[in-house]
Amino acid sequence: MTHGFFPVSYKVCQVLGIQGGFPLEIREIRPGFVAEAVGNNREILAGRDGDVVKKALLSYSVVIMRGMELAPTEQVALTRLLGPPEIVTDMRNHHPESTDILVVRNAGATPVVGNTHWHSDRSFLPEPTRYTVLRADVVPEEGGDTLFADMTAAYRELGDEWRPVIDGAEAVHSYDTVARLRARAHGAPLEQGYARKYPPTVHPLVRAHPESGTPALYLNELCVASLHRPDGKPVTVGVAELHEYATRERFVHRHRWRRGDVVVWDNSRVLHRAGDLPPGLPRVLHRTTTAGAPPYAPAEG
Ligand code: OGA
Ligand code: MN
Question: Which domain covers residue 153, as residue numbers?
Answer without folding.
Answer: 2-289
